[in-house]
Task: structure prediction
Amino acid sequence: MQIKEVAKELNISARTIRFYEKQGLIQPAKKPENDYRVFSEEDVLQLTTITALREVGMPIKQIKVILEKPEMTLQEHLEIQRTALLEKWVEMKDMLETLDEMITRTSSTEFSYQALYPLAAHLKKIKEIRYQWTDRWNFDGQAHKYDQRIKTEGHVFNVHEGYEAALAMVENIVQKGREATCLDIGIGTGNLGSRFLSYDMKVIGVDQSEKMLEKCKEKHPEIECRKGHFLMLPIIDNQIDVIVTSYALHHLPDEEKLLALEEMTRVLKPFGQICIADLMFVDEVHRHKVLEGYRERGNTVAVESIEDEYYANQALLVSWFEHHGFLVETYQFNDILSMIYAKCKK
Ligand SMILES: C[S@@+](CC[C@H](N)C(=O)[O-])C[C@H]1O[C@@H](n2cnc3c(N)ncnc32)[C@H](O)[C@@H]1O
Result:
């Protein structure tokens, strides 16, 4: 085929095709007598791939990698692009919401320019929080032994005491529905999310650790694994019926936890459910009492372990849910492990 024919078939310009050639994405043969390009069936197929990937905003550089070195699968590349687009989208959404609020304020009779600054400062803070989280626990490094460690480690201070009961309770309390979508955030190797597969539910697992996701996929190929973060879920609005999470939220400080709840609510369908089984104290008084108890017994392992993470203040989370239109139930397994079940009223 000649360049004009290909351009017509793919609904792109000949100039675009020449640009792709210049970037090294395609190398059509040339007729020796006049240097006209001749596109083989394979070239056209390659061009359709390039066109499709460009249409979803993939940079030329990344497309080149896909075409040249198939080390990663096309699916993996597409997932990277989805994450990149969603990040931009969440950022745009934050900006638009702030802009809306700014517009509302300008219509107030008491409006002054200073009223805009706190909104901008809040937006800046949210942006910083979204990007500053780092994995200081090295979950990638823990992934291959994670499941064995749950059962064997921690005799001086066992955070996993009650783990199985907690997962079973989450499974039990959540209203399940065939073909409903369950999202497990911080899914790790899939121990909680996989429980919902037997109810014919679609399970999506999100985790910031690629190695954890690899393990999860290996154990439960039916789970759709997506790399992502509590503060920026790789999911568009109102898609999820049930969100579950176990032993993951306590890696975020309390202020970020509230942002994570907001993010969960964004992706939740009307009347959706959120169930959190995690390390938490009932409130600050309880936290103080439990820590004092460990100190008195000389259990420094427990104290250090608790202080190294961000065990939640359950009262804070419950109050957030209640203020945002959820019916809430709580259940305490032991001094450090509890569950919050929240169902959206509309
Ligand atoms: C202790 S493991 C729990 C795994 C699993 N939920 C379970 O119950 O066995 C914590 C998991 O949460 C993930 N995680 C921690 N912080 C996260 C964050 N901010 N966003 C997404 N995943 C996170 C870690 O990568 C890890 O896989």
User: Anything to note?
Assistant: The two ends are 57 Å apart (CA to CA). The domain at 3-68 is CATH 1.10.1660.10 (Multidrug-efflux Transporter Regulator; Chain: A; Domain 2).
